[in-house]
Specification:
It catalyses: chorismate = 3-[(1-carboxyvinyl)-oxy]benzoate + H2O. Keywords: Lyase, Menaquinone biosynthesis. Belongs to the MqnA/MqnD family. MqnA subfamily. Catalyzes the dehydration of chorismate into 3-[(1-carboxyvinyl)oxy]benzoate, a step in the biosynthesis of menaquinone (MK, vitamin K2). Pathway: Quinol/quinone metabolism; menaquinone biosynthesis. The protein is an alpha/beta fold and 286 residues long. It folds into two domains: 158 residues, Periplasmic binding protein-like II (D-Maltodextrin-Binding Protein, domain 2, 3-Layer(aba) Sandwich), CATH 3.40.190.10; 90 residues, 3-Layer(aba) Sandwich (D-Maltodextrin-Binding Protein, domain 2), CATH 3.40.190.10. The protein is 41% helix and 21% strand. The strands form two sheets. The chain has a six-stranded mixed β-sheet. The chain has a five-stranded mixed β-sheet with strand order 7-6-8-5-9. Strand 6, helix 4 and strand 7 form a beta-alpha-beta unit. Helix 1 crosses helix 9. It is globular and about 60 Å long. The chain starts with 10 loop residues before the first strand and ends in a 21-residue tail after the last helix. The relative contact order is 0.20.
Length: 286
């Protein structure tokens, strides 16, 4: 008798930032049962792995979908963004922002860097030079940049630096500009993986959405977990989580389309892509 092979688990990408803790902690603790193999990293690294076919389903930069929409499908009603201050995507400067001549940008970010360039040029008429590097290394070496873009947990830790009194919260500024939420990250399915995995991808997407529902109902708990990690105190983290958007409903989709349209107008992408979603199959009762 031939032994039946166990299907390989779905490979899931996880952004290594505190803001997705409510999505992934339920999976990691098995509060929501799953058999994912999880790969964690900054958005830019996950973008690269996903593009190379090393993941089946992943959180990724929203601009990654815009660059390769023919390869991906969006997970329905799951995103990471804000409708107002995001607190963890910040331009910090030692001089007034209209006098900043060079901005340090982390290689870990794609969407936030694209949004910053777009916003400075289109909204403010500013075209500073950009350089790629690591802010913590520069500060430790005594070579502080004139201005830098901080994202994720690093932004939460560095946002009160006394030498950088001038700040621009990109989520807040986008909302003031457009009146819409800004979606920094989405979850995507590789089209090829969806075709190969069939019902197993359905189960994976449903599990991910169940984790979102579980985490969204327990946000104060994640503030305490974040405090234990030494990032910020619990009250500050409760404020942080309350300001985040985890949905990809009609208003969030409008914000995402507006971002893509502005990128296309600026020549940053060839055209604004249509939002195409992974279609869950109907569950048939036994």
């Amino acid at each position: 008798m031939t032994r039946r092979e166990t299907p390989a688990p779905v490979r899931l990408g996880r952004i290594g930032y505190l803001n997705v803790l409510p999505i992934y902690h339920p999976l990691e603790t098995k509060a929501v049962d799953n058999d994912f193999v999880v790969e964690s990293g900054p958005p830019a690294r996950l973008n690269t792995i996903m593009e190379a076919g090393g993941l089946d389903l992943s959180a990724c930069s929203s601009i990654e979908y815009a660059r390769r929409p023919e390869r991906y499908l969006l997970v329905p009603d799951l995103a990471i963004g804000s409708c107002g201050p995001v607190q963890s995507v910040l331009l910090l400067s030692r001089v007034p922002l209209d006098r900043a001549s060079k901005i340090l940008v982390s290689a870990q970010t794609h969407t936030s860097a694209a949004l910053l360039r777009l916003m400075l040029a289109t909204r403010f008429g500013l075209r500073p030079a950009f350089e790629t590097g690591d802010i913590r290394s520069r500060l430790a070496a005594g070579e502080p940049p004139q201005a830098f873009l901080a994202i994720g947990d690093e932004a939460l830790r560095l946002r009160r630096l006394p030498d950088y009194p001038y700040a621009l919260d990109l989520g807040s500024e986008w909302n003031a500009w457009t009146g819409l939420p800004f979606i920094f990250g989405v979850w995507i399915v590789r089209r090829e993986a969806a075709a190969q995995l069939g019902p197993r991808m359905d189960q994976a997407v449903r599990t991910l959405l169940a984790a979102k529902a579980h985490g969204a109902a327990r946000l104060p708990d994640y503030a305490l977990l974040g405090e234990a990690q030494g990032i910020l105190d619990a009250p500050s983290l409760r404020s942080y989580f309350r300001g985040l958007v985890y949905d990809l409903g009609p208003e969030e989709q409008e914000g995402l389309r507006a971002f893509y349209a502005k990128l296309a107008e600026a020549g940053a992408i060839p055209a604004a892509p249509r939002l195409e979603f992974y279609q869950l199959r109907d569950v048939v009762a036994a």
